[in-house]
Amino acid sequence: MASTFPFTRLDSIEVFATEDRVAQLVWRNLPDGIVGAIVKGRPQILGEGGRPGAAEVRGLDPDSHNSVDITLDGRVIARRIISTTRSLEGPALSRIATISDLHLGETGFGLVKEMREKAGPTKGYPLRCALAAAREAEEWGADALVIKGDITELGMPEHWALFDEFLSEISIPVIAIPGNHDTFGKPGSIDATEALQSRGLFDSPIQIRDLPGLRVVAADTTTPRHTWGRIRHLSDELERAVDISEPTLLLLHHHLETHPYPRIWPLGTPKRQARDVLDRLATANPDLLVSSGHTHRNRARRHGSAVITEVSATKDHPGVWAGYVAHPNGIRQVTRRVAEPSCIEWNDRTHAAVGGAWGKWSPGRLGDRSFVHEWTRPSTATAESPRATQSSDTSSESV
């Protein structure tokens, strides 16, 4: 394992994700034993110590600072204050999950010293973590799964074959867009558009799905053979896509730069393009949440009435998937770590990249990962609406 500096070491027990009544607790470097939690005097079994793990803590009060005791074999070893989000009004109308940066075909991770997985698992960590994320999202209740690009490491036939294996084990509808790793155009690689369309995916650079209380738009921001993104050429179609009376979730691969000159790697969509397009979209629909991948980190910010987030990868620290719950008056984002034991063990190991700085940089703050955002205009949809419909055009009619 790569060496780490003392100031970059991670807490042994962490509250990673919160909703109104549920939180995800993550632990690492605990002694052997049964990890549990005590909530309002009631014990819960969470999992096994001795290795990294993650589990739900239930029975919490919404919009509260909940005091939770963490136990090992029934003995209290720590106390955490779990600050839950508030409950949104009305029923949950729809649930959608996203993953990104699968990098199927990758064999090692790290910038200075590459980490490789020990022999043992029958599936490599990129496929194993992607599958675990999708399964956990489905158990959480997702109506559909959106893959926000960098499906493969370099778009080689054997990498797309791993994607076939992934698709064969997923039972909920999948929406996919390419990322820069899919469109590098390396010798021997497969054209990403052809690869996705041959699998019944990516019928258009802008894909629209209407769920109860939420329009989902997935847009291709790739620049063939380059790392950076572009979005200005899609601005007219995107404006038509979001110009509806219902709230919209816009999903991209590339993040939208906030500075004239990029301050982090990898390169995203240039600030001027990003700002101009965001201004148009937020004017067309003030109830807008935009989320991207690409940076392998978790961040959140506001642009007027819109919320802009970045969600990290499935296959390196912290290793996550994101869920979105639409209610009549708002939306909840929750970003959870992939909890499957062999995946969280691998992803926890990769926190040591860049001398341990990766483990501090990539997760972001709890408020970047889990939050509630209220709409300016309540949705008129009902929970009995069709679960998912596809729109092939970008008209401005209401859902």
Q: Could you characterize the architecture of this molecule?
A:
The structure is a single chain. The longest helix has 16 residues, at 125-140. The relative contact order is 0.17. A hairpin with a 2-residue loop joins strand 17 and strand 18 (306-310). The chain folds into two domains: 21-83, Immunoglobulin-like (Sandwich), CATH 2.60.40; 94-391, Metallo-dependent phosphatases (Purple Acid Phosphatase, chain A, domain 2), CATH 3.60.21.10. With 399 residues, it is of the alpha+beta class. The chain is 19% helix and 30% strand. It has helices spanning 125-140, 157-168, 192-197, 235-242, 271-284, 341-349, 357-361, 366-369, and strands spanning 13-18, 23-27, 34-39, 42-48, 53-57, 65-72, 75-83, 94-99, 108-109, 115-116, 144-148, 174-177, 206-211, 214-219, 248-251, 288-292, 299-303, 306-310, 320-327, 330-337, 371-374, 389-391. Strands 17-18-16-15-14-13-22 form a seven-stranded mixed β-sheet. The protein contains eight helices and 22 strands.
